């Protein structure tokens, strides 16, 4: 389970973050000051930190510097107020991995968390699933030694599904994770790519409909 340290002096904000992230399988630790967070890190490990910039006593920027100095490369996403461009630049320059502005969009927040975690952890070079073999570096997919030709977007979607089995992805989440932020792509584009991916898997003999499932009204998931 991915452990996220939430650091914000507004209790309502960290409660809101925990309320949204916990049901998605994230273990959330809540701290209301940067100093509390640093004390916690002295004897605990986390996978990612959501760190507010504007806090009394010690700012998120100062805390980011301390974390980089004492705990190395723990992924950090800064939480900023709208219009805080100067603080964003400072944060990125001192080692933050990404930022998100408050009030945040929940889908974008999760997509950014996953993107930062993917960048900070070495992805498995090869993923195997019931005869499927997906090779990350060469962007190849095989089913029982038969190669299946995929487009880059199809490959990206399948890689996301196979590394997050049983997790439901909304269409917006898939767009942000595979196409990128601020890309104008319609829901039916996702549906078309899923349809094509299923068809290619079926033609190779893999029972795609048993695993790449539609969750009506929500999106798609890969059943393990």
Outline: elongated
Rounded radius of gyration (Å)? 19 Å
By DSSP (H or I, 4+ residues per run), the number of helices equals 9
- Main sheet strand line-up: 2-1-3-4-5
What does this structure look like?
The chain has 224 residues and is α/β, with parallel strands linked by helices. It has 9 helices and 12 strands. The chain has a 5-stranded parallel β-sheet, with helices on both faces. Strand 8 and strand 9 (146-148) form a beta hairpin. Helix 6 (152-162) packs across helix 8 (187-203). The chain starts with a strand and ends with a strand.
Question: What's the layout of helices and strands?
Answer:
Blueprint: E1 3-7, H1 11-21, E2 27-31, H2 34-41, E3 48-52, H3 60-71, E4 76-81, H4 85-93, E5 98-102, H5 106-120, E6 126-129, E7 132-135, E8 140-143, E9 146-148, H6 152-162, E10 169-170, H7 171-179, H8 187-203, H9 208-211, E11 212-215, E12 219-222
Parallel strand pairs: 1-2, 1-3, 3-4, 4-5
Antiparallel strand pairs: 6-7, 7-8, 8-9, 10-12, 11-12
Helix pairs in contact: 2-3, 5-7, 6-7, 6-8
State the gist of this model.
This protein has 224 residues and is α/β, with parallel strands linked by helices.
Keywords:
224 residues; alpha/beta; 5-stranded parallel beta sheet; 12 strands
